Amino acid sequence: MTAVRSLKTPEDLAAAGLIEPQKLDGIRAIADRYAIALTPTVVSLIDRTDQNDPIARQFVPDPAELLTTPEERADPIGDQAHSPVKGIVHRYPDRVLLKAMHICPVYCRFCFRREMVGPQGDGTLSPEELSAALAYIREHPEIWEVILTGGDPLVLSPRRLAAIMRGLAEIPHVKIVRFHTRVPVVEPERIDAAMIAALKESGKVVYIALHANHPREMTETARAACARLVDAGFPMVSQTVLLRGVNDDPAVLGDLMKAFVETRIKPYYLHHPDLAPGTSHFRLDIAEGQKIVSALRGNISGLCQPTYVLDIPGGHGKAMIGESAVRGEDGCYSVSDYRGGEHAYPPK
Ligand code: SF4
Predict the structure, then answer these.
(1) Is the pTM of this model over 0.85?
(2) Is 117 in the pocket of ligand 1 (CB under 6 A)?
């Protein structure tokens, strides 16, 4: 069945055959707490013959979400601890997040901001709150980059997006505006001439970071939407979350990274999954993640290598957690090659 509108309720999912009727009560309990949305594009990507379909796993609620483990937390990366005014997260010296709204076209079941996004989430900034957020950026000359996230900023109408971009245009020390989005993959039709014109409104350098987790998301339509952005002059980078049952396999991850590079998107971050509530079924151990990432090294092009990172719980920022190829000290090192061989450096 091809959906013609987004599926947003357990009943929608049952009617579309994406959950079994006997699971409806459990899924309703999840829907009371976490938002649900699958766009028609995402629904069309789901392989209904595969019980473990990696697309369905990302978007169709699972009863496992009702389990919250002791280490999980509502704000796993500590946004609140670094929010001086509503809508701003100022965690690092030279950049801020600007969270203008908390709506997404899809709701990922592993979302690190799942307690903040959705119709019952932290909402959209009022005009006064947006002015206060822009004033904060204006008053902090150290802010070189503004990252629009949320929520997914490309669900804003081109008119509202253009207004935000005009606000940023008036702040000379902001040189870079970055967008974190899933839209080119899950709702590619939104990337039209009006959206591109809005993105150009600030006159700043605009980067687009695309969030995608499985090579099957990189359809011809998604690639065409990304091409419209790159052709318009916006460099693109990728963000992927390492997820059990979705991409915890070097072959799958490698194909995804190649798909990015073929689409002129430079692989950027591979995120270790955050400690968001009800997401333990997606998490793997850091050592498992390191093995998967190490298997990419050397075997596929250097262009295809993401940086494996962990957002340290509590708001302490990102740490690079890939395995180091070098051990030793005092000018005497052992370096491992991509086949597992060990070599002294400098050579003896
Ligand atoms: S698109 Fe991003 S913010 Fe929205 S639900 Fe998915 S991970 Fe969360």
Answers:
(1) yes
(2) yes
